[in-house]
Amino acid sequence: MNELLVFVCDGAPVRGEIISISTAWQAVLERRNDPPAVRRILGDFVGAATLLSASLKFDGTLIIQAQSKGPIQLLVVECKSDLSMRATVKLSVDSSEIAPNASLGELLDAGSSGRLVITLDPSDREPGQPPYQGIVALQEQQGSIIKPVASAAEAIGLYMQKSEQLDTRIWLASNDTHIGGLLLQRMPDSGGHAHIDSQNAAEGWTRIQTLGETITNEELLTLAPETILRRLFLEESTENGVRSFPPRQIRFSCRCSRNKVADVLRMLGEEEVQGILAEQGAVETVCEFCAKPYRFDAVDCLQVFKTDLLSDATRPPSSGH
Ligand SMILES: [Zn+2]
Fold first, then answer.
1. Structure pTM?
2. Going by DSSP bridges, is the β-strand pair 132-137/115-122 parallel, antiparallel, or unpaired?
């Protein structure tokens, strides 16, 4: 099951999402060799990216990057608005040095250098127009105490509060075969929920959060989204109304291609590439997201730079005189 279920409450200004990801998550893991503690954190961020991208109001890609000077140097999860996703992690130490129970705080140096970058990249973005980017530290100052975040859910909550100014609660759980998640978001009191007065709206948000808090990791990891929705909101549904939409499919998909690797070679320049060829006989690289190998021998490289010349030659003459 790789499903995302969206629901809205009629008696409270709340929109929610529930995910259950299994084979799509296993497709990410089978291409990688991360230690258990890293897999857990990556799983939680894949869940978070899927939940967040489903609330995007445009066609495009949501990218979560966690960066630190800790053992996880870089973690990247990309999820497109069609719910296709890919993920990768770069470690600064050997996998064997990471304890099985290492926490997010330790791995992402959440006490000092860790930060989260969330990028929203619309597919119709004009060349030169930068994508929207929000950055939050993975620590919270409480008086004179700096408190590192304990989980991906807490990190995302912090981001939503600081960048989007939307009350959002997220619950995430992941293991080696499944990712489960629940998102609750308070909608503006105007709009579709204008019939609810502000006191009822505030009470409704509290009521739905209280129901959300009863979710367990076990339920998130084993139950289908429809079952979770029924269990958590049965009474709310009978008394006030809860509507769900047809479930959407989540899948693993990498966007790497031979053409994109060729573009990288062109950016390196012919001289640099000739140097690699002279030293190693071929240019070899592996996609960091899906582990697909790419190999360009001398003839391929010649083609790469010839194509560049060809595309130059076929380019329409410049009109700027
Ligand atoms: Zn790839």
1. 0.89
2. antiparallel
